[in-house]
C-alpha cells in the first residue's frame, strides 16, 4: 500500500487551499472552514454530501437552541440551563433523524454558552458561513480532484463479489469428478467469509449511492440494477455456502453417479464463467448502467436432461443417504442458475427501458422552447 494515496493528497490540498483562503479573507473564525473539510471529506461524494447535510442541520439546530437557551434560561444556573438545552438538542436531533449532526450542534452550544456568550451575534453567523464554505469546498474537491463517487465504489464491490463467487464455483467444480481435486475446508471457509464481507461492504455503500442519485433514487435505473444484482449475489452466496457444506458422494458407487457429478461440475464451470463475465461488464463501468450480457445463459446440454436421468433404475440401488445428497446438490445447482437467469432478465429490462428513454423524442413544445 503506498504511503501517500490520492485521497490523502486531495484532502491535504483542499484543506490547505481552504485554510489559505480563510486566512486571506480577513474574517474572524476562519479556522472553522478547514475543520469542516476534515470532518466532511470522507471516502466518496455521496457519503460526504450526507455528512455535510447533517453538519449544516446540526449547526442550525444548535444555533437556534443556543440563542433560545441563553435568553430563555438566564434565571437558571449555567450548568442546569446548558444541560436542559443539550437534552433538547438530542431529542430534537433524534426526531429529525440526525446521526452525527447533533454532535456538531452540541459543540456549538457548549462553545457559544461558555466562550462566545458575549459575541453570539457575530460568532454564530460567521461559524455557519465558514462551515458551509468548508463543506462546499470538500464536495467540489471530490468532484474535481480525482473524482470519488459512490457509484464507482458500488460497481467495484459488485464486480469483486461476482468475481469471488465465480472463483468459489470453480473451486466446487474442481472437487467433483472427473478432476476430483481434494478440497481444503479451511480455505473454503475463508473464501466464504470474504464474500460475506464484500456483500456487507456493498450494503454499507448503498445509502451513499442513493444520496448521489437524487431526491428519488428508487426510480433510478442504477439503484434498481444494484438492488437486483445485490439480491442475486445474496442468493448465490447462500447457495454456494450450502453447496460447500455438502459432503462429496462416494466415487465407488458406480459409473452413473460419477457421470451425474461430472454433469454438475460442468454446470458449475458454466455458471462460474457467467459470473466472471458479470464481473468484467460491471468493472468496466465508471458510474453509468453496465450493459447486460449480449446473449442469454446457455446451460450444458446434459444438465437440461438431468431430471430424466434421475429416472434411471440403477439409482434405486444407491443408499438412501447418497440419493438424498444427490438431490440436494441438484437442487442447489438449479437455485444457482435460476438466480443468475432471474437477475439477467431484470438487467436486460432495465437496459431496454433506459435505451428507449434515451431514444424517445421530446415533445414539440420542449424542442421549440
Biggest sheet, open or closed, and with what strands and sense? none
* Straight-line N-to-C gap: 54 Å
Helix content: over 70%
Instruction: Output mean pLDDT.
Output: 82
What share of the residues does DSSP label as strand, in percent?
under 5%
Care to count the β-strands? 0
Shape: elongated
Q: Would you tell me the structural class of the helices and strands?
A: mainly alpha
> What order do the helices and strands follow?
HHHHHHHHHHHHHH
List low-pLDDT spans.
361-369
Instruction: Evaluate the radius of gyration.
Output: 29 Å
Describe the structure.
The chain has 369 residues and is mainly α. The protein is 74% helix and 0% strand. It is built from 14 helices and no strands. It has helices spanning 6-25, 32-40, 45-72, 78-95, 101-114, 120-144, 150-174, 185-212, 221-245, 255-283, 301-304, 306-309, 320-359, 364-368. Helix 7 packs parallel to helix 9 and helix 7 runs antiparallel to helix 10. The radius of gyration is 29 Å and the shape is elongated. Mean pLDDT is 82; it is low at 361-369.
Question: Quick gist of this model?
Answer:
By secondary structure, this protein is mainly α. It is built from 14 helices and no strands. The longest helix is centred in the C-terminal third of the chain and has 40 residues.
Amino acid at each position: 500500500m503506498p504511503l501517500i494515496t490520492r485521497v490523502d493528497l486531495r484532502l491535504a490540498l483542499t484543506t490547505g487551499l481552504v485554510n489559505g483562503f480563510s486566512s486571506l479573507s480577513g474574517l474572524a473564525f476562519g479556522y472553522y472552514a478547514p475543520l469542516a473539510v476534515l470532518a466532511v471529506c470522507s471516502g466518496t461524494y455521496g457519503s460526504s454530501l450526507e455528512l455535510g447535510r447533517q453538519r449544516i442541520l446540526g449547526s442550525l439546530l444548535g444555533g437556534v437552541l443556543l440563542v433560545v437557551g441563553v435568553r430563555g434560561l438566564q434565571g437558571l444556573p449555567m450548568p442546569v440551563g446548558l444541560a436542559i438545552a443539550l437534552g433538547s438538542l438530542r431529542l430534537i436531533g433524534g426526531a429529525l433523524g440526525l446521526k452525527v449532526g447533533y454532535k456538531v450542534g452540541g459543540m456549538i452550544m457548549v462553545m457559544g454558552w461558555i466562550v462566545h456568550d458575549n459575541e453570539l451575534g457575530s460568532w454564530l453567523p460567521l461559524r455557519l458561513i465558514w462551515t458551509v464554505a468548508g463543506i462546499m469546498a470538500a464536495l467540489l474537491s471530490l468532484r474535481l480532484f480525482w473524482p470519488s463517487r459512490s457509484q464507482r465504489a458500488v460497481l467495484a464491490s459488485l464486480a469483486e463479489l461476482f468475481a469471488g463467487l465465480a472463483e468459489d464455483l470453480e473451486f466446487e467444480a474442481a472437487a467433483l469428478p472427473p478432476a476430483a481435486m481434494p478440497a481444503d475446508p479451511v480455505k473454503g471457509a475463508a473464501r466464504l467469509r470474504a464474500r460475506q464481507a464484500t456483500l456487507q461492504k456493498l450494503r454499507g455503500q448503498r445509502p451513499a449511492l442513493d444520496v448521489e442519485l437524487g431526491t428519488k433514487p428508487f426510480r433510478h435505473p442504477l439503484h434498481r440494477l444494484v438492488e437486483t444484482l445485490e439480491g442475486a449475489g445474496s442468493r448465490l452466496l447462500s447457495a454456494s455456502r450450502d453447496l460447500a457444506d455438502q459432503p462429496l458422494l462416494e466415487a465407488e458407487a458406480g459409473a452413473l453417479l460419477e457421470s451425474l457429478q461430472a454433469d454438475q461440475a460442468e454446470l458449475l464451470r458454466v455458471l462460474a464463467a457467467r459470473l466472471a463475465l458479470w464481473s468484467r461488464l460491471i468493472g468496466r463501468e465508471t458510474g453509468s448502467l453496465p450493459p447486460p450480457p449480449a446473449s442469454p445463459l446457455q446451460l450444458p446440454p446434459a444438465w437440461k436432461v438431468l431430471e430424466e436421468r434421475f429416472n434411471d433404475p440403477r439409482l434405486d440401488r444407491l443408499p438412501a443417504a447418497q440419493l438424498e445428497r444427490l438431490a440436494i446438490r441438484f437442487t442447489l445447482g438449479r437455485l444457482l442458475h435460476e438466480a443468475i437467469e432471474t437477475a439477467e432478465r431484470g438487467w436486460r429490462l432495465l437496459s431496454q427501458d433506459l435505451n428507449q428513454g434515451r431514444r424517445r423524442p421530446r415533445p414539440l413544445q420542449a424542442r421549440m422552447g
